[in-house]
Amino acid sequence: MAIQEIKVPDIGNFDEVTVIEILVKPGDTVQKEQSLVTVESDKASMEIPSSHAGVVQELRVKLGDKVHEGSVLLTLDVAKAQQASAQNSEPNQPPAQVQQAQAAPKAEAIEQAAPAVAASMAPPAPTPASAAPAAVAPAAASLQTPHQPDRSAQLVHLPHASPAVRRFARELGVPLEEVQGTGPKGRITIADVQAFTQAVMRGTLQTRAAAAQRATAAGAGAGAPGGAGLNLLPWPQVDFAKFGPIERKDLSRIQKISGANLHRNWVMIPHVTNHDDADVTDLEALRQQLNEEQAKAGIKVTLLAFMIKAAVAALRKFPQFNASLDGEQLVLKKYFHIGFAADTPNGLVVPVVRDADQKGILEIAQETAALSQKAREGKLTPADMTGGCFSISSLGGIGGRYFTPIINAPEVAILGVCKSHTEPQWDGQQFVPRLMLPLSLSWDHRVIDGAAAARFLVYFTGLLADFRRVSL
Q: What CATH number should be reported for the domain whose range is 271-471?
């Protein structure tokens, strides 16, 4: 018997991630690169594949565990896999067993998810006033108990629910440990999750996290005289259906996460935005020439590649833009990782081009195209979206003139780009048509002052007007 430990590989700049699904069990035969567990960070979820083929001997993790790079997930008997590959008398048997093992949980997930799909397509049935509170009464009672059970003790016995129900709860942001299961042996069903959500929305139930936040907010408001606390009016509760037909649609997971981050950044960072236009007439001619030359190589150069390179030059000249606040200190970075906003069917994500100062225009163009494709397919890893120094958000393919991009904390500035347009410009003797690119620079006033922001944007527009200056 040859035992191989399967460990968590490099997961990017995350100290730890949470195990949300376990895809194998002891005795299962797994192939190399077959997914073993699903982990989740605050930005993305990803499956961790097996580095070896073999038979699962022991699981070293359970649902809810926190793991990090190097953590042991399970042990494999690789000798059995080698013996199976050497014995070709029944070559079809092991793959068939693997397919059956994989098909079983998938079938269960589909069976469990079917009621949710049907429920979302059908109009909601009226529920007696006493039904929903009764379904969640134990959870409500636990909120009123002054002494909460220890969190680590709760995780020893995670809520009894199928992967499909867990996925449904994650999409809604429902804490399963607070839901009372009505299925066999206390199993949590999709109906239980829906009843819990309805009770929270009606205000008859409050999650533990919401209760803690309100308690904190109340304390901050009470201890902040003169209006320093955010004692805002409650959000208006409106029955929109009485005004006309409506349709409810759940936010995507990316929208939920990015929405909370954007709200925090907008409230906590004192934003100021400068606007200017860059003359990109000559740069556009160069871009078209490069695309003609690189057509056979399949490389398509966009203005984004030039702007990333120009951003590196501007960050070199104005290092306070390549910085982050850390308490009462300013962290000045000596590396140049540039993020760019990528639009996907599920929402906006920001992949990062690492070490952009060490790459040429063609290499940056290829990398941004590859990252954009991964973003559309939902295959970006946490490492693809962390470590940025400065971000570029481009609406050039859509339109508009100017806008106020929200800074991506902990960065201190972000550049917004709109659609270029031809307009007359005075050359000293006459008006001539020039291609102008609208730019909007948002910056953190705690770190950057107005004069520095104006100089940065003037310098950046000058680079785009004469790209030869990038090499100076």
A: 3.30.559.10
- pLDDT, one tens digit per residue, over 394-415 is 998 788 899 999 999 999 999 9
Calpha distance 460→309 (Å, rounded): 10
CATH of 3-87, one of 2.60.120.40, 2.60.120.1140, 3.60.20.10, 2.40.50.100: 2.40.50.100
Distance CA 75, CA 6 (A): 6
Task: Encode pLDDT of 96-108 as tens digits.
Answer: 444 444 444 444 4
The residue extents of the domains of the chain are 3-87, 271-471
Task: Evaluate the CA torsion angle 354, 359, 361, 364 in order and state its sign.
Answer: negative
- Looking up tokens 């871009």 gives 287
**Cα–Cα distance for residue pair 73/39, rounded to 1 Å:** 11
- Active-site residue, from 68, 157, 263, 445: 445
Residue from 21, 36, 289, 320 nearest 161 by CA? 21
Other Cβ atoms less than 10 A from the Cβ of 243: the count is 8
Residue 147: active-site member: no
Q: How far apart, in whole angstroms, are the C-alpha atoms of residue 398 and residue 226? A: 44
Neighbours of 461 (CB within 10 A): 20
Phi, psi of 31 (to 5 degrees): -100, 165
Q: Which two tokens stand for residue 215?
A: 């308690």
Which residue, 411, 412, 431, is CA-closest to 423?
A: 431
d(CA 25, CA 28): 6
Name which residue leads in pLDDT, 208 or 163.
208
pLDDT in tens, 28-79: 999 988 889 888 776 666 778 898 999 999 999 999 899 988 999 999 998 7
CA separation for the pair 13, 383 (Å, rounded):
6
> Do 37 and 61 contact (CB within 8 A), yes or no?
yes
- Has this prediction a pTM greater than 0.85? no
